[in-house]
């Protein structure tokens, strides 16, 4: 019998590099940020700050700007994930059919997902360009608009255009993920159902959707965590503007910290985000466990 | 039997999906080979009547063009950082993932969740102390620092994905190789690694894409061409007024090319990698 000691050494040897590395550079800043959030640090006045307890938190939670940026984060996440799920499901169902040209569509569908976020943002910024943009050109030629529009100049419209860019990039991910699940599905049930005369819509709601439910749940939680952290896209497309129309909570934390140099305020907002993400992580793990049990 | 109207709907939808997927790429490419004057034409002209590859040539050959030079250097920076991150994360994360998946010990589950949480928390939460720390060391704006920072999310990511691959492995392999006199490391290298090779390949691709795409740390921690990544170079340039749209498009095409090629060549592995992250534990 191998000695338990060697067993233990092997485990230690394997996990210590990862532990040292990740917790060495993550845990320390994580704690430090929390301490900042309890102080009144402000780089403009250059003082190290005194402890102010939970003052920063109560301030942040009473600030209507903070709440509206949380609201925008929810709007962004909610709308983009809903669209990605519906479109992704429809595309996955289409790709699962045997039709002419489906092989081609399958091979190209993943491409938008592979595009780096910043390139994606720069590309859409160019497409949305108020004077020379392709979107204006296309809609004009289709006679859907009568004059060129500035797509990123009004708060609400800008947010929706950011969502379009996100949906373009992430729908393929959802579609491919769901397609992989569909392909594990048992075809014979479908054939039996269609011989029984069940309509395609009925089959979808009684067979496909229940089968995909766990995968959909996993996707929703995964996408929610990512959508809550949306930063790159906003930075490159709108910088939080116009008039804070796309100021999501992460972007606000970033501005507070690096433009306004209010370290403590930035740290407080960051921690509020970390708490939300922490809750979502727990939900995610729960959902995965549920799926495994099912 | 399928009804005719359904086929029509499917066909139309398929064409729309194909159009929406490909049109932005096509426009980006057309913009990159058009003259600036032609891009500013109103009404828009979809197919340019003359084309130029000058911007591509500028980026690849050593010219005096400042922006082209910045794009080239920052591409190489991104490549070096992404390659180092991928390699280190695979070794360190892979070792840990293997143990988490196959061995039982105290706090195992707790560690796994802790790693998952470190992967999930947004970088903005840890960035201020890290910035002050590296500033004190005089190590801002280096590829080394950027690599270290990227590893903070790359290692947990590898652990999370890889353990689902290791988990499917039968215990029998371990017993058989132990009987043959293999040490645990030998077992890992000679038996386990060859079996989970597809999983390793999928993880490699994902980590590479993840670090190639990384923006937040590069934005804050790099300032010169010494370490600046291609994403930062593109966002800086496209943020300026009166930009050369064609140049942004060219940089974009080149920055998107490595991940796009990877996605096309390794599609099969990508799909298995995507789903691996979302199941089990």
From TrEMBL, chain A:
The ABC transmembrane type-1 domain, residue ranges: 70-284
CDD domains given in the database record: TM_PBP2
Regions annotated as coiled coil: none
UniProt record similarity statement: Belongs to the binding-protein-dependent transport system permease family.
UniProt keyword annotations, A-Z: Cell membrane, Membrane, Transmembrane, Transmembrane helix, Transport
Species the sequence originates in: Cohnella silvisoli
Record-given protein name: Sugar ABC transporter permease
Pfam families, A to Z: BPD_transp_1 (PF00528)
Automatic annotation (TrEMBL), chain B:
Topology of the protein relative to the lipid bilayer: Multi-pass membrane protein
Organism from which the protein derives: Cohnella silvisoli
Lineage: Bacteria, Bacillati, Bacillota, Bacilli, Bacillales
Family to which this protein belongs: Belongs to the binding-protein-dependent transport system permease family.
Transmembrane domains' residue ranges: 12-30, 81-100, 112-134, 146-166, 187-212, 245-266
Name of the protein in question: Carbohydrate ABC transporter permease
The keyword Magnesium appears for this protein: no
Localization terms from the record: Cell membrane
CDD domains: TM_PBP2 (cd06261)
Matches recorded under InterPro entries: BP-dep_ABC_trans_perm, MetI-like, MetI-like_sf
PANTHER family linked: INNER MEMBRANE ABC TRANSPORTER PERMEASE PROTEIN YCJP (PTHR32243:SF18), MALTOSE TRANSPORT SYSTEM PERMEASE-RELATED (PTHR32243)
Keywords for this protein: Cell membrane, Membrane, Transmembrane, Transmembrane helix, Transport
A Pfam family per the record: BPD_transp_1
